[in-house]
Amino acid sequence: MNRDILLISSYEIDRWGFNALSDASRRCRFHSAQPHYAISDLFQNSTPDLALIDLDYLPKDPMGCIMEMRIQYPSIATLLLSRYEHPQVFLKAANAGVLGAITKSDQPSVIWNKLESAFRGESIWTKDELRRLAVCASALPPHRYHPIPLTLRERDVIERLASGYSNRRIAEDLKISYETVKEHVQHILRKLSVTDRTQAAVWAVRNKLV
Description:
The chain is α/β, with parallel strands linked by helices.
């Protein structure tokens, strides 16, 4: 029997990849939520068997959004999707009833095993994993932890943006094209949920990136 999964992701490549996996196995149907929808609006027309939430979709307050969803839709099995491990967010999510996390480096067979466990309502987190996450989280100073997953290049750009560099100077400094810098700046603004460079610069200063 096919299962319905709501993939909540900001990236078209994620939607394409999971749909390709679904087409290959015919075990699941993936329905995609487009960017910039509030969590509370995503389940108005359907109730999926499982929600797979990309942390990149929740740049401003990931745990607030996750808690809102768990409170409003406690019966929907929930997994996180992430490019890399976020010990503090993962621990809080586990305590909120999120069943586990899929990382984008997982092999297809591992992804399917995690999905099938979640369909059965089984937690994917192991005691050893939660213990390791707790150790990692405690070792992260608050100023080193950024729940918003900027790429290394985006960090390079926002550091210079906060120092007052123009896009053209950033391009020259990083030896990349002007158009590429513009794209990075737009991605940064979207991830931070801000509307201009000044607000992005303030965020960078508050989070000690400069």
